[in-house]
Amino acid sequence: MYEGVVQNLIDELGLLPGVGPKSAQRIAFHLLSADPTDVKRLAHALLEVKEKVRFCRVCGNVAAEDDCRICRDARRDLHVICVVEESKDVVAIERTREFRGRYHVLGGAISPIDGIGPDDLRIRELMTRLADGQVTELILATDPNLEGEATATYLARLVKPMGVKVTRLASGLPVGGDLEYADEVTLGRAFEGRRLLDV
Amino acid sequence: MHVAHLSLTDFRSYESVELGLEPGVTAFVGPNGQGKTNLVEALGYVATLASHRVSTDAPLVRHGAARAIVRTAVHRDDRRALVELEINPGRANRARLNRSPVSRPREVLGLLRTVLFAPEDLALVKGDPAERRRFLDDLLVARTPRFAGVRADYDRVLKQRGALLRTASMARRGRRSAGGDAPGSHGDVLSTLEVWDAHLARHGAELLGARLELVEALRPLCEQAYAALAPGSGAATLAYRSTLSSELSSEFSTGLGITSDRAALTEQLLARLLEVRSSEIERGVTLVGPHRDDLILGLGELPARGYASHGESWSFALALRLAAYDLLRADGGDPVLILDDVFAELDSQRRRRLAETVAPAEQVLITAAVPEDVPSELAGVRFDVAEGGVARAG
Questions:
Q1: Four-way CATH pick for A69-196: 3.40.50.300, 3.40.1360.10, 3.30.310.80, 3.30.70.20
Q2: Contact B163 A112 (CB under 8 A)
Q3: How high is the ipTM of this complex?
């Protein structure tokens, strides 16, 4: 154990995801020896993020204003919405530069074990967005695990009567990989989702 | 297939042990409590990623050590695989294959295949249905490692669905005591329940269909093996009892009249789930699915459980293991046979018959308290096990 304040800092850092006791200690001592202005800047950034960042009124993505950058962008296609679990999934999809529509961030996936049901996700907001009939396609990009699949199934059933086309991201082989290294589940899924080769 | 080398570090009672093994029969002999079973338990762990004695990993690690390491060299035909497992209680285990790390320990399943006979097997006949379900599922995984994933997925759906049913059950009770519709989300629970039903039915159908096919394949093998072990004591029969149908309860000689077609099973599971929905919500548990099924063992006209004598129960348990062995062998690659302290439990006739049956296997590993417990048909290499050490005798 260290002197009060140092131990305090280590304990606080240790609460962060992916930071164990050893890493917490290393970060704490790095901060101790760092230049005071650098540390102030970090502290300021931490406070600022809590004060300034909000969630977009429309899609639930992190935003600096009422609406996020993507929802404000008039060049984005209004007819397609991609549903993801978290804001970080938006970033992942944006990196592809393939998708030109807008997003809807649910804030998680249905998981009764964790007490998360549809009411705890931003599903009602999604229904409101679909209500005006402008959206023609809903892309379900929840995680390809059990909870993500369940959430996708739930949404598909909910949206079906509205006449919106519902699609799900494909599961399968990683690009540039070797077939022999794929695990059986992924390879099995890839078989299920095989498509006609048009030549 | 045979194990050419076994090396343990901080596993159970062993701080460190290195064993060179050969095809044929090897016996580990020593007084009780000296660590014979620990050796074969380690091999069973490499084959199934679970111990046949305990359900958690903590007891496998030597007292005071942080992790246990099991290394085995497995020879199959002319190929050699080096499988290393690091057992970390409370954390993820790690595995290496031929000195390269694999992303998940599950990937080494199937490299070593064992059939283990142990005193615990008596529970296959006398114990709860869970023992027999585990027997079937372990065998499925041994034959097709992919089923480790199917099983894990099914268990996960079951957990999620169970949590949802408990919530619904509490909401219903709450509403009753409040005398009227509380502003809860009952409709909401129902709509998500349908989603979990679909997943339960899909994963359940895959598990159920595979089990039905497995029982079909085991049935003649088990009957033969039992007849060889205990001639003249009635035929040993296998039947599968599913929550899909109440047909079977009185019939031990025939199989279920249900199909193993996955799509049809999925439909049937969904229909049954709908039927029992009200009582599921009442009780807060999933009442339909392979997690509530049973493998029914029959002797002649009677169920083995409750009616079979101690000797008959033993023979039946052995017959099940022998049938599993035959099945794995038919798939190609002779599995390693492990007989953990079983001969002491058998009369001389059954002893001899078992010895005759297993003698031709590529590799047989036996543990026994005294050398006399090893039948003469199974003479081979002997190791003496005492005080945490293993030494080759003679």
A1: 3.40.1360.10
A2: yes
A3: 0.72
